[in-house]
Design goal:
Elements (H helix, E strand, L loop, with lengths): L3 H15 L7 H12 L2 E2 L9 E2 L7 E5 H7 L4 H4 L6 E4 L8 E4 L11 E5 L2 E2 L5 E2 L2 E2 L10 E8 L13 E7 L7 E9 L4 E12 L2 E12 L10 E14 L2 E14 L5 E2 L18 E6 L4 E6 L4 E15 L4 E13 L2 E12 H4 L6 E2 L6 E2 L4 E26 L3 E20 L2 E5 L23 E21 L4 E20 L7 E19 L4 E12 L3 H6 L1 H5 L6 E13 L3 E17 L8 E17 L4 E16 L14 E13 L2 E12 L2 E2 L7 E2 L2 E13 L2 E8 L7 E3 L9 E4 L4 E9 L1
Parallel strand pairs: 6-11
Antiparallel strand pairs: 1-2, 3-10, 4-5, 6-7, 8-9, 10-11, 12-13, 12-44, 13-14, 14-15, 15-16, 16-20, 17-43, 18-19, 20-21, 21-25, 22-25, 23-24, 25-26, 25-27, 26-28, 28-29, 29-30, 30-31, 31-32, 32-33, 33-34, 34-35, 35-36, 36-37, 37-40, 38-39, 40-41, 41-44, 42-43
Length: about 750
C-alpha cells in the first residue's frame, strides 16, 4: 500500500511524537482523566437532558477545544475525520464537503449529517443541492466541545436524523473573566485574527463573545484574495434557582474558492492546482428564452452570509420533573459560483475552429494546437434559506423508571436561482483563460447542456416522541423510544427561467420511528450495550425535482434506515475505549448524476466495526485511534445489484499520538496524525477505482511564558497526492479531486 518514502515518513512522525523530555505533573494528568470519566453528554437524549457518558447505551465521540487545536481542521467537515464511521471528502474548500456515514449510500453532499448548536439543528434539511450543513457553520475559539453520535437513539429525538448528528457546544461565561487573542498566518499567506472573551455581567448572569476575521489567496493559490470572511458570536446565560436560560447568536459572512475535480495525468495539474484565477473569474452567462446576459464573478466561490440564532430554557421542578425547550432560527444566503469540468481534457487542435490555434479571451495570447484545454461550466447557484426549529420536552424520574415526552417542530424554506452548464473551453493551467476562435465558445448556449431554474420551497415537520428507561437492577438498564412524524412540503420549479411552472409538489406523509436498547454495566468502568432502531430520512425540495418522474409514479421518496449495534465500552483514569459492531440497511436511496438525468433507486446494506480509543499516560504521552472496517453492498438496483456502494472505503484508520513535556522551563506538546484509507469505487458500476492513500500531519505547541502559546502545524507533511473523488457527473471522464497539498500554519495566542 505505502511506498518506501511514505513508510519512512510515517515512522519518523511516530518517533518524533513519542520523543520528549520532562513530563507534566502526574496530578494534572489524573485530574484530566477523572473529568473525562465523569463527562456528561447530551446527544441522543430527549431535550438534551444530560447523562453520564459511561451510562449511555450507545457510542458518542467527544472532541474538546484542545483536541480541535491539535487536529487543525481546514474546515468544519475536516474535523469529522476524527469521528469513527465517518468518511469525509473535504477537498472542495471551506464549503461543499461530502460526508458519508458508516456505509450509508450517497453520491455527494452530506445526506445523513445534521449539525446542531447546543442541541438545536442549524438547518433541518441535512442536504439540499449545493448545500450541506457544514457549509453554514464555521469553527473558531467560541467552541467548547463537539459530540458526534452515529445511529443510537438518533432516529427518535431532535430532528430524527438516522445517520450522524454532531452537536457543537458554545463556551459559556463564568464568574472569572477569561479571554484568548490569536493571530494565525501560513505559507499560503493566510491572515487571521481570533478573539474570545467571557465573564460575568452581574450575579448569575454570564456572557461569552468571540469571532474571527480572515483573508488569504487560498490553499490552492488563485492569485487573488479568494478566501475572506468574518464571524461574530454572542452567548448569554442566566442561572436561575431551578435552571438556566441561554441565548446565542452567530453571524457569519465567509466565502472561499470552490475547488473542483481536475483532469488527471495532465502535466502541471496537481494538488496545488486551481483553474480559478484572475483571467477567468469574471464572465458572462446567458439564461432564459431571451438569452438574458448576466455578469458574474466566479471568485465569490462558495460560502455563507447569514446568522444562526437560538437558545434554551432548562428548569427542574419538585418530584423529579424537568422541562427543556430548545429553539433555533437560521436565515441567510448560501451561494455557489464555480468552474465545473465537463468531460475529459483534450488539445486545442481538436476543437479550434481552424484546427490549429486560438486566442485567449482576456489577454489575446495565441495558443498552439498542443495546448491542453477542457470544457468548464460557469455554474451559478443563488440560494436563500431560512428555518425555525423548536424542541420541547418534559421528563420525570420515578426511581428505577424515567420517562420523557417531547414535541419537535421545524419549518424550512429555500428559494433558489440556478444557471448550470454555460460550458466553454479554457486553457488548462492555473487561472487559465477562456478561448476565442472556438465555435461553441461564441454561442450563448455554451458548448454542452444547460439547466436553469427558479424555485421556491417550504417544508414543515411536526413530531411527537417519547422515551423511557428502566433500571432492571444495578447492572442492567433497558431503554426504548418512539417517534411519530408528519412531514409536509410545498414546492414549485420554473425550469428554463421562462416563468412557466414545470414541477409542483404538495406532499404530506407520516412515519413512525423507534429505538430500543439494553446496557449492561460489568463494573464502574466497563460495560456493553446492544441497540436496534428504525428511522427515516424525509424528502426535501431537490429530492422531488431530481426524482419527479418517480414521485409521479407513486414513489414517496422516503429513505428507510434500519440499524443494529453491539458495543463494548471502557472508561478508566487513563483509557477511553469504544468498540461498536454495526449493521444497517437503507431502502429507497436515489442517485442522480446531473440535473435532468434519470434517478437510480437503490437499497444498500453494510456491516462493520468502529473503534474509538483514547489513552493518556501519566508520563505525558497520549494517543487517539479511530478506525472503521466495513463491507457494503447494493442489494437492490436495476443494473448494479451486488456491487459495492460508491465512495465508501472498506477500511480507514487515523492515529494521533501526542507528548507533553517540559524543556528549559517551557511547556511543550509534540503531536502528529497518521491517517490511511483504502481504495474506493468512484461509481455504483464499480468501474472507476479511487486509489487509497496515506497522510501525515505534524505539530508543535510551545508555551514560552504564562498565557502565551505558539503553535506550528504542518498538514500533509509528505505532500501526498491522494484522490478523494472522481467526476460524479461523468464517471468515465478522467477527472478527480486531490486532497489539500502540504501547508504550514503558525499561530501565536495569548490567554488569561
Amino acid at each position: 500500500m505505502a511506498t518506501k518514502h511514505t513508510r519512512t515518513a510515517i515512522a519518523s512522525a511516530i518517533l518524533l511524537a513519542m520523543s520528549g523530555q520532562t513530563a507534566f505533573a502526574e496530578e494534572q494528568t489524573q485530574q484530566a482523566a477523572e473529568e473525562k470519566v465523569e463527562r456528561i453528554i447530551v446527544s441522543g437524549t430527549p431535550g438534551g437532558v444530560g447523562v453520564r457518558k459511561i451510562d449511555a447505551g450507545y457510542a458518542v465521540t467527544n472532541i474538546d477545544a484542545d483536541q480541535i487545536v491539535k487536529l487543525s481542521p481546514k474546515s468544519t467537515a475536516d474535523l469529522f475525520k476524527a469521528v469513527p464511521g465517518v468518511w469525509v471528502e473535504s477537498s472542495g474548500g471551506e464549503s461543499g464537503a461530502n460526508v458519508f456515514v458508516r456505509g450509508f449510500p450517497g453520491g455527494g453532499d452530506a445526506p445523513f449529517l445534521t449539525i446542531s448548536i447546543d442541541g438545536s439543528p442549524i438547518y433541518p434539511a441535512p442536504t439540499l443541492s449545493f448545500l450541506e450543513n457544514s457549509s453554514i457553520f464555521r469553527l473558531d475559539e467560541t467552541i467548547e466541545t463537539m459530540e458526534a453520535l452515529r445511529g443510537g437513539p438518533n432516529p427518535v429525538v431532535s430532528n430524527g436524523q438516522p445517520g450522524l448528528t454532531t452537536n457543537f457546544r458554545l463556551k459559556r461565561g463564568s464568574e472569572d473573566t477569561e479571554a484568548i487573542f490569536k493571530y494565525t498566518t501560513s505559507d499560503y499567506d493566510l491572515q487571521r485574527i481570533d478573539a474570545m472573551v467571557s465573564g460575568e455581567i452581574s450575579e448569575d448572569f454570564y456572557y461569552m463573545v468571540g469571532g474571527y476575521v480572515k483573508s488569504s489567496p487560498g490553499i490552492r493559490d488563485a492569485g487573488f484574495t479568494s478566501e475572506k470572511g468574518n464571524q461574530f458570536t454572542i452567548n448569554l446565560t442566566k442561572v436561575l434557582d431551578n435552571g438556566t436560560i441561554n441565548l446565542y447568536s452567530r453571524h457569519t459572512d465567509d466565502h472561499g474558492a470552490w475547488y473542483l475535480p481536475t483532469p488527471l495525468n495532465v502535466e502541471g495539474i496537481d494538488a496545488g492546482y486551481t483553474q480559478l484565477g484572475t483571467l477567468n473569474r469574471q464572465a458572462a452567462i446567458y439564461t432564459g428564452p431571451n438569452n438574458d446576459e448576466h455578469q458574474i464573478d466566479l471568485g465569490e466561490g462558495r460560502g455563507w452570509k447569514g446568522h444562526v440564532s437560538g437558545g434554551s430554557i432548562k428548569l427542574e421542578f419538585d418530584n423529579g420533573w424537568q422541562f427543556v425547550d430548545r429553539f433555533n432560527f437560521t436565515k441567510g444566503d448560501a451561494n455557489t459560483y464555480g468552474l465545473v469540468p465537463a468531460g475529459s481534457a483534450t488539445t486545442l487542435g481538436e476543437v479550434a475552429t481552424n484546427g490549429e490555434t486560438a486566442a485567449g479571451a482576456a489577454t489575446g495570447t495565441v495558443y498552439d494546437a498542443d495546448t491542453p484545454v477542457q470544457q468548464l461550466g460557469r455554474w451559478v447557484v443563488l440560494k436563500e434559506i431560512s428555518s425555525f426549529t423548536n424542541d420541547l420536552a418534559f421528563s420525570k424520574d420515578f426511581g428505577d423508571l424515567s420517562a420523557a415526552f417531547g414535541y419537535y417542530t421545524a419549518s424550512t424554506s429555500a428559494n433558489d436561482w440556478w444557471s448550470l452548464g454555460n460550458a466553454a473551453y479554457h486553457v488548462l493551467e492555473a487561472g487559465g483563460e477562456m478561448l476565442n476562435d472556438i465555435e461553441c465558445n461564441a454561442s450563448t448556449e455554451g458548448c454542452a447542456w444547460n439547466y436553469d431554474i427558479n424555485s421556491t420551497g417550504d417544508a414543515r415537520t411536526n413530531a411527537f416522541y417519547s422515551t423511557a428507561q428502566y433500571k432492571i437492577n444495578d447492572a442492567f438498564t433497558l431503554d426504548a423510544g418512539i417517534r411519530f412524524e408528519n412531514h409536509e412540503v410545498e414546492y414549485t420549479v420554473d425550469e428554463g427561467l421562462d416563468g412557466v411552472i414545470t414541477k409542483s409538489i404538495q406532499y404530506d406523509e407520516s412515519k413512525t420511528s423507534w429505538t430500543t436498547g439494553i446496557n449492561y454495566s460489568i463494573n464502574d468502568d466497563m460495560g456493553v450495550f446492544a441497540r436496534v432502531n428504525r428511522g427515516y430520512k424525509m424528502p426535501y425540495f431537490d429530492d422531488f425535482r431530481d426524482n419527479y418522474g418517480a414521485y409521479q409514479g407513486g414513489e414517496k421518496l422516503i429513505k428507510e434506515v434500519t440499524q443494529a449495534e453491539f458495543g463494548y465500552k471502557l472508561l478508566t483514569d487513563s483509557t477511553d475505549f469504544y468498540a461498536t459492531l454495526f449493521t444497517n440497511e437503507v431502502k429507497g436511496d436515489t442517485f442522480v448524476r446531473r440535473p435532468g438525468a434519470p434517478a437510480e433507486i437503490l437499497t444498500n446494506e453494510a456491516y462493520g466495526i468502529e473503534l474509538d480509543y483514547n489513552y493518556n499516560h501519566e508520563s505525558g504521552f497520549s494517543v487517539n485511534l479511530n478506525s472503521t472496517l466495513q463491507e457494503t453492498e447494493i442489494t437492490e438496483s436495476p443494473t448494479n445489484e451486488g456491487n459495492e456502494s460508491q465512495r465508501q472505503p472498506k477500511w480507514q484508520v487515523r492515529v494521533t499520538p501526542s507528548y507533553d513535556f517540559e524543556v528549559s522551563g517551557m511547556y511543550a506538546t509534540l503531536y502528529g496524525t497518521i491517517s490511511a484509507v483504502d481504495d474506493r469505487w468512484g461509481d455504483n458500476e464499480n468501474t472507476v477505482t479511487l486509489e487509497g492513500y496515506e497522510k501525515v500531519d505534524l505539530g508543535l505547541i510551545v508555551e514560552p511564558m504564562e498565557g502565551i502559546k505558539i503553535q506550528l502545524a504542518i498538514d500533509n507533511l509528505t505532500d501526498e497526492q491522494g484522490i478523494t473523488e472522481g467526476d460524479p457527473r461523468n464517471a468515465d471522464a478522467p477527472n478527480g479531486r486531490y486532497i489539500m497539498p502540504r501547508t504550514t500554519r503558525l499561530s501565536v495566542s495569548y490567554e488569561f
